């Protein structure tokens, strides 16, 4: 018997011996008086064991059969399910093999089958998290993760993710390089789908911030801070009216960091089961499976229903802003150089003040080149670079060698061994 069953038995025996009223026993046991009479009748028939539940010690009729349990453990023992936790294993058993079981049941099966090791719960130090932003679009965390996403089945990939701070809504894609161009492509797709957020929260990588150059013998504390030129992404965000915030540490942007931890476990295993081997297959699985699951299971409603995203206005050109931008000076012949090539501004676009003027050159993501002077784009065409004329140099005059210079034959027949002695020559 449990302690509760023993306490119930004592109260019933007191009521049976009329040491307390049935209403008092009902109040002590938390049941009705009618149920107390029913328990007293059962006590008279079955004795002390009447307070024990009749199904105690018997297997449940809803228990999953041993054959199904054996089959589940055999399935999870396959190499493709290596490293799966009970929660993810329960989902795949239900979705792919039709075995319905709770994650705790699957956990028990995996522990018995030596596929999972039970962990003792430890008391951790309480960490006070920063509260979420109240509206979606107020703050979006942005970062990239380098990991063996395909587990050696294909090329090396990076995962670039943007996660909303208020709702945990995720937007991501796989790329081959963590470059400015690839980050701009993901930013383009985000802005087209959701609009312009108020701020992006990233680390202080060279993609987002230009680091000041200092000599090793110059302590940084003794120098005044200098404003560095913006990076291409920082410039693009300024043109689009989006604030950039740099995190001082990795834990500061913990929401996107924790999303990478989940992806490195669940996403990697899901792509392993799906047999993903290329970047195209990885992005297809990411969009059609993983992000759908994330939206359903991991997102939360914001504190406020209004959206802080702002629409793209007519003055915003994603093609112009999300490009590699530099300044060039127009030559006297209305040409300019870019990437080792010479471009000619067409005659119909020549205006007063264009000669020796600074123009904005945009190398866009689609590979095209655009030149803007003020608010107007100039038509240009590539022209051949004139070859430099070769200047004929006069031939060098051959200098005549003197008698004792190299190559002279003044000592051709002279042999030191066969020559006479000095006293003989003097004599």
Descriptors for this entry?
elongated; 427 residues; 15% strand; alpha+beta; 4-stranded antiparallel sheet
Which strand order do you get reading across the main beta sheet?
Answer: 3-2-1-4-5
**What structural class do the secondary elements suggest?**
alpha+beta
The proportion of strand residues reads 15-25%
Largest sheet: 5 strands, mixed
Radius of gyration: 41 Å
End-to-end separation in angstroms reads 143 Å
Helical content, roughly?
25-40%
Strand/helix succession: HHHHHHEEEHEHEHHHEEEEEEEH
What's the count of strands? 12
Number of helices: 12
Q: Unreliable segments (pLDDT under 50, ≥5 consecutive)?
A: none
Shape designation: elongated
Q: What is the typical, i.e. mean, pLDDT?
A: 87
Please explain how this structure is put together.
This protein is an alpha+beta fold. The protein is 33% helix and 15% strand. It is built from twelve helices and twelve strands. It has helices at residues 3-16, 22-29, 33-46, 66-76, 86-96, 103-112, 180-194, 232-239, 254-274, 279-297, 318-321, 422-426; strands at residues 140-147, 157-164, 170-175, 199-202, 243-246, 323-329, 335-338, 341-345, 358-364, 369-373, 376-378, 380-383. Strands 3-2-1-4-5 form a five-stranded mixed sheet, sandwiched between helices. Strands 6-9-10-11 form a four-stranded antiparallel sheet. A hairpin with a 4-residue loop joins strand 9 (358-364) and strand 10. The chain is elongated and about 155 Å long. The mean pLDDT is 87.
